[in-house]
Each structure stands twice: as structure tokens, then as C-alpha cells.
Amino acid sequence: xxxxxxxxxxxxxxxxxxxxxxxxxxxxxxxxxxxxxxxxxxxxxxxxxxxxxxxxxxxxxxxxxxxxxxxxxxxxxxxxxxxxxxxxxxxxxxxxx
Length: 97
Prior knowledge:
The protein is mostly helical. The chain is built from three helices and no strands. The longest helix has 30 residues, at 55-84. The chain starts with 16 loop residues before the first helix and ends in a 13-residue tail after the last helix.
């Protein structure tokens, strides 16, 4: 009979979402930022699919959709850094003795 082995160590998730976020390496704020970026990306893709046959309006709406996709990309990549500056002042560092 083959020897069975565990692929992952058991995790204690008894404190709820705090433990879950530690296991995936993300905070609640980071997860919300990624969710907002995903929603903006879906809106941008929908904007791309609803382009008209008129070249002038298609160019204008298409460039707006590409810009919206760029905003979603920046938010997904750097959203945690961008929003960390507006959360309020942090405690001052302890002086070294």
C-alpha cells in the first residue's frame, strides 16, 4: 500500500477572517482593492464591447475604455500602496537607546 502524505499543513482558522487573510498573504484592505480593480476592469471590457460603427465615437469611447483598463491595472498592482497613505498617521517610531 502506498504511503500517504500531506500536501499542506493543517491551518487553525478559529479566529475567522484574520487567520484566512494571513494564509493567503493579504489584508482585508488589499482584498477590497483587488475587488474594486476587478469591477473596474469588467466595466472597461464592457465599454470595449459596446463600441459603435461610427469611427469618431468608436475612437473616443475606445480610448476611454483603454484608459479605464489602465486605471484598473494600476489599482490592482499598486492599490495597497496608494491607499496606505490615506489611512491616517501611524504611531511614531520608538527612539533607539
